[in-house]
């Protein structure tokens, strides 16, 4: 009877080992998936930071161009007004 019990216990231990080996394999696979996901997330964060930097630079450039455009429009209107005044002055002088 003792031999039969030992055989049964050995069989139970084998089944437990197989079950644990299956869990280890599954957990290794999950870990690899998580590591791959972590790499993708890091790449995505890097791309996002790059896009944010580029967006900030473009906004700054846009603001500079708008300021320059405003300045040029003011200068244009000033020169246009001077031209009108000069024409009026010339016409009165004739």
Textual characterization of the structure:
This protein has 94 residues and is mainly alpha-helical. It is built from one helix and no strands. The chain starts with a helix and ends with a helix. Pfam families: Golgin_A5. Its main location: Golgi. Keywords: Coiled coil, Golgi apparatus, Membrane, Transmembrane, Transmembrane helix.
Give the helix level as a range of percent.
Answer: over 70%
How many beta-strand elements? 0
Distance between the termini: 137 Å
**What is the string of helix and strand elements?**
H
Q: Helix/strand/pairing class, anyone?
A: mainly alpha
**For the residues shown, what is the average pLDDT?**
95
What kind of sheet is the major sheet? none
Q: DSSP helix count?
A: 1
Choose one word for the global shape: rod-shaped
Instruction: Extract low-pLDDT stretches.
Output: none
Kindly provide the radius of gyration, computed on alpha-carbon positions and rounded to a whole number of angstroms. Answer: 40 Å
* Beta-strand share of residues: under 5%
């Amino acid at each position: 009877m003792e031999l039969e019990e030992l055989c049964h216990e050995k069989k139970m231990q084998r089944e437990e080992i197989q079950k644990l080996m299956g869990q280890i394999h599954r957990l290794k696979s999950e870990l690899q998936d998580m590591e791959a996901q972590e790499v993708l997330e890091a790449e995505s964060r890097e791309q996002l930071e790059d896009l944010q930097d580029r967006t900030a630079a473009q906004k700054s450039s846009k603001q500079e161009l708008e300021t320059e455009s405003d300045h040029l429009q003011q200068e244009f209107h000033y020169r246009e007004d001077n031209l009108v005044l000069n024409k009026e002055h010339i016409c009165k002088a004739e």
